[in-house]
């Protein structure tokens, strides 16, 4: 297949067009009065959502050059979501503002490299300003406020997320599922989460969330490497006989053993997932022992005289549900005996009291928290599957935002933290094209606040001009359409979300500004010499 190439202004114009089309679909969702977007799925029900990343991931443009521009912004949004759990729409709005203004400056004859230097300096200064004005998260009320903002202004969902985090601790495990009723509910159950996700994407059962979910699985826990097909056959045969899903948590599963599990999964013989338990030596062994205890499994290990081909039905543990994503595994309501767990906790307390080093004490505290902690399960309700999916997405956004807030604190919301950061750029003292780059950032910092106002039915530029004249924390409350102290109104954003959105948007803008050529695949295959 041949390639197509565009250069200079034509290349940058195509990238800009792609950025504008994607941003146009995403930015209408920003803020509590953001609009919805309907997404078609061939052969399935349409999705109605106001979740920025979901929309961005669905945008594929027919023009390959334009599509590259859209993909760059989509990656910035995805990176923001991955780092901070929220802020994907803000990242898109900022990237669009920076790219459009930056390309306008390049077309006017300003040096792209100097513009980039000014842009980098300005972004660093703005990020420092945001961090300087962040404050630590207070109690449950603060968590509820943050969650409410991220859930699109839904105070009930915000309160539920705050309650979940309060009940299991801020470092605790909270999962979100689609419910079976109209109401959204919260339940705290026994469970554990550990790092280490699925070893093959073929195990995924939920392509939208890239997650594997197993209901009432058998659980095999082994301090062994499974490499040969014969290592895995006894476990698969037992699971198939009982018609149960299978979770294999081990030192590793690779080669023929992994391929055997994947083939059985794809054929529908056994729904299974293999995960690699993290850590080395004693740390990994402790994790495996704790997992076996929680699930009621017998640990299979060579030093205990056990090999994979000798696995029996008595070795398997149980769980009500297991959820595995790319990075972690959550086991909910394992089948272990509560009395055995209590005895293990008492033993850990005795070991902790006699720990000889801080490293040993930290390891024991980690095990204690793992065994004693629970899992909060939020079940998203709704009248239809579409409504449930939309509510689940909002809860997941709210949960991610509260976690980000715990990490780096909170700042005033409503786009105001970025708008106020503009003042910090005045002290940079840049000249020439670098000053132009800084001015591009200064103008872009006002765009989220302007877009929130526009989505609420106000003129964005007018709302921003009014906010500039008001005290630091006073801005537009898009729900009430009043200018008020947003901190007192509970409108807060996680500082981490604001930081990541700006940094990732700037990264995309810098790439576009300094691009002089774009190469894409040709739409038509080269038929070659002699073709008719």
Q: Which value, in Å, is the CA radius of gyration?
A: 26 Å
The name of the CATH superfamily of the largest domain reads: GroEL-like equatorial domain
Number of strands: 18
The percent range for strand residues is 15-25%
**What is the number of independent domains?**
2
The CATH architecture of the largest domain? Orthogonal Bundle
Q: What helical percentage do the residues reach?
A: 40-55%
Tell me which oligomeric state these chains represent. Answer: single chain
Distance between the termini: 17 Å
Protein name: Chaperonin GroEL
Keywords: ATP-binding, Chaperone, Cytoplasm, Isomerase, Nucleotide-binding
Subcellular location: Cytoplasm
Main location: cytoplasm
């Amino acid at each position: 297949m041949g390639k197509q190439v565009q250069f200079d202004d034509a290349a940058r114009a195509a990238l800009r067009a792609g950025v504008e089309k994607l941003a146009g679909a995403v930015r209408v969702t920003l803020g509590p009065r953001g609009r919805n977007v309907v997404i078609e799925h061939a052969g399935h029900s349409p999705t109605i959502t106001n979740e920025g990343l979901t929309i961005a991931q669905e945008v594929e443009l027919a023009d390959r050059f334009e599509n590259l521009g859209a993909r760059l912004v989509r990656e910035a949004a995805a990176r923001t979501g991955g780092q901070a759990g929220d802020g994907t729409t803000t990242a898109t709005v900022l990237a669009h503002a920076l790219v459009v203004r930056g390309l306008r400056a390049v077309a006017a004859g300003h040096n792209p490299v100097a513009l980039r230097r000014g842009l980098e300096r300005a972004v660093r200064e703005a990020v420092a300003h945001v961090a300087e004005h962040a404050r630590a998260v207070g109690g449950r009320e603060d968590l509820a406020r943050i969650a409410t903002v991220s859930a699109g202004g839904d105070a009930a969902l915000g309160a539920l997320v705050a309650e979940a985090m309060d009940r299991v601790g801020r470092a605790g495990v909270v999962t979100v599922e689609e419910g079976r009723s109209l109401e959204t509910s919260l339940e705290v159950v026994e469970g554990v989460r550990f790092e280490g996700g699925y070893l093959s994407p073929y195990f995924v059962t939920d392509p939208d969330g890239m997650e594997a979910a197993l209901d009432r699985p058998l659980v095999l826990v082994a301090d062994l490497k499974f490499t040969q097909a014969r290592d895995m056959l006894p476990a698969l045969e037992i699971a198939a006989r009982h018609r149960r899903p299978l979770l294999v948590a081990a030192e590793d599963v690779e080669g023929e053993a992994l391929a055997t599990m994947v083939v059985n999964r794809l054929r529908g013989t056994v729904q299974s997932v293999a995960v690699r338990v993290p850590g080395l030596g004693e740390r990994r062994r402790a994790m495996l022992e704790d997992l076996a205890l929680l699930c009621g499994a017998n640990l299979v290990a060579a030093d205990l005289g056990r090999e994979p081909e000798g696995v029996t039905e008595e070795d398997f543990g149980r769980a009500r549900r297991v959820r595995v994503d790319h990075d972690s595994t959550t086991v909910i309501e394992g089948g272990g005996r509560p009395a055995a767990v209590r005895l293990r906790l008492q033993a850990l307390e005795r070991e902790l009291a006699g720990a000889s080093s801080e490293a040993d004490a930290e390891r024991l505290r980690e095990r204690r928290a793992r065994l004693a902690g629970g899992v909060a399960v939020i079940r998203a309700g709704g009248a239809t599957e579409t409504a449930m999916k939309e509510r689940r997405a909002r809860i997941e956004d709210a949960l991610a935002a509260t976690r980000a807030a715990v990490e780096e604190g909170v700042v005033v919301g409503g786009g105001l933290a970025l708008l106020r950061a503009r003042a910090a750029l005045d002290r940079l003292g840049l000249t020439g094209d670098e000053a132009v780059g800084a001015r591009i950032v200064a103008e872009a910092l006002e765009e989220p606040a302007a877009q929130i106002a526009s989505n609420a039915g106000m003129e964005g530029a007018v709302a921003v001009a009014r906010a500039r004249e008001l005290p630091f924390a006073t801005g537009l409350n898009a729900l009430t359409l009043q200018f008020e102290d947003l901190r007192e109104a509970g409108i807060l954003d996680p500082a981490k979300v604001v930081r990541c959105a700006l940094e990732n948007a700037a990264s995309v803008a810098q790439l576009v500004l300094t691009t002089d050529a774009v190469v894409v695949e040709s739409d038509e295959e080269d038929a070659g010499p002699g073709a008719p």
